[in-house]
Amino acid sequence: MLGFATVTVVAPIQLEAEDNSYLSGCYISSFASGNNERASHVVVITCAGSHLTSPIGRINNEKRSGGHSSSRSVWVDLQTQPHVMLQSVTILQKNVSLSEVNLVLYDSREISESELVGKKFLYEEEKDHGNDIVPYFVHCVQRESRDHETRVSRTRESWTKLLLLIIRSFLVLSWLPKIALGSLHSVLVKRFDYSSSALQQLLLRITQIETLEEELLAGSVERLLQWLSGVPAGLKLNQPLTQALSAFFSYHVHLWRLYLELADPLLRSLAWVLVWLGMCGASVQVAILSDLLDLATLHLYCFYVYGARIHMLQISLLGSQWRAFRGRKWNPLKQRVDSHDKGGHVSLTRVLTAVVFTLVIFLLPTTTIYYLVFVLLRVGLNLMRGAMSLTVWLLNINPLYLVLLNLSASNRVKGDIYFSTVSAPEVNKHSVCPVAAPLVLHLHTWPTALSEVLVHAHTDDFPPKPSPDWKLIFSSIMFGENLL
Predict the structure, then answer these.
(1) What is the DSSP string of 294-352?
(2) Cα–Cα distance for residue pair 153/368, rounded to 1 Å
């Protein structure tokens, strides 16, 4: 017997009915610092296996206590049929009386799956865990669970590579459905004089989808440009300028259509990739939709940039010509407006200034109309993107999943621990040492309060709430200093 030492053996209840095998786990001790204090030892058993490099015990279901290696400082013999019971405990190569041993049974799934118990019972290496066993016990069980998951993930690596190869092959051929279906339908009609209604309907739907994509991305913009080239909202614009601007933007729409036709196979493959990514949840789907909106409206952003630059160039030109007409100019070195009066004589500069000012002032309404149309489109698209970003943020922080986990008493939200004693008749009924039986405790986990779950859930990993800079938006629209 090891003096007045107190030993706690923690074992999973999953070992019940386990065959003879070795035990894996960890061990820690806290030696006495005074005459009135006892040394305490903690043995945490995490799993059992037939081939272990450094076992700390074994399962022995024979009706006798087996020996152990004299070179091991810690050795535990367990009986697992029909219940988990201790047969013998050896600490520092000395047998310990079972009356001085506490046997704690726990559910390994509850501890390994819990995301809160490790935060509530924080493990610190420098702390004396011989007298505070719960943090050390949680640390050992969750570390073994992480190591087991790592080993399992390595065994699945070959299957994952095969699955990726199949997906890549499928994505390469994903742009061929219309050609394949059309060829199959043609063969059925010509060779067998049979027309499949299902194939015709599929081909019709594919054609309708392609037409819809073209209408959404390019057709509506062309109709808008035709409207601007005439008399939009009853406004009489400068016809040569509006015709030139309309032709310029229409040419870009034509280039955009050509780009979509050339990139169609790649875009279809990308669409299938995004479909697979959509299985990650609603927030990912909304984020993908936001990116697709940016991709589909790239030409509209280009139109906004062109219109903003032309409009703001005219505004800047009007300001400089107005100052020059009044005999003043902007001094960039001193950052102020200086006077450069020529003694009151009307110079050629003022005549040219008046001509340029008149030309710009008459052309300004036309460019302003184009700028207002494109800036309204840009603001509308930004509002849609802002609404999607807010939706993603709400989906990320909404507590519905945590509430459901709490209501279903899931192991992931169990963070409170309490102990209960196993009755003496039940212990001694199957014990091989009924005279010196250990104290048997059962470790239970309890769901944490919902308020505490929400507090632990809101970590720094969540993205910040999207908030628009309204001052920058209004400044960009009115003065064009920055682009939206």
Answers:
(1) HHHTHHHHHHHHHHHHHHHHHHHHHHHHHHHHTTEEEETTTTEEEE---TT---HHHHH
(2) 61
Name the 3-class secondary structure at 409: coil
Distance CA 65, CA 79 (A): 9
Burial (CB count <10 Å: 0-12, 13-18, 19+), residue 225: buried
Q: What is the pTM of this model?
A: 0.56
* Four-residue CA torsion sign, 336, 340, 344, 348: negative
Question: Rounded CA gap, 73 and 94, in Å?
Answer: 8
Q: What are phi and psi of 466, to 5 degrees?
A: -70, 125
Residue range 384-429, pLDDT digits in tens: 999 999 998 888 888 888 888 888 888 888 888 888 888 654 545 5
Q: Are 290 and 387 in contact (CB under 8 A)?
A: no
C-beta of residue 184 within 8 angstroms of C-beta of residue 198? no
Alpha-carbon distances of 218 from 121, 222, 423, 462, rounded to whole Å = 60, 6, 78, 37
Q: Which H or E element spans position 101?
A: strand 101-106
Give CA–CA dist 229/374, Å, rounded: 14
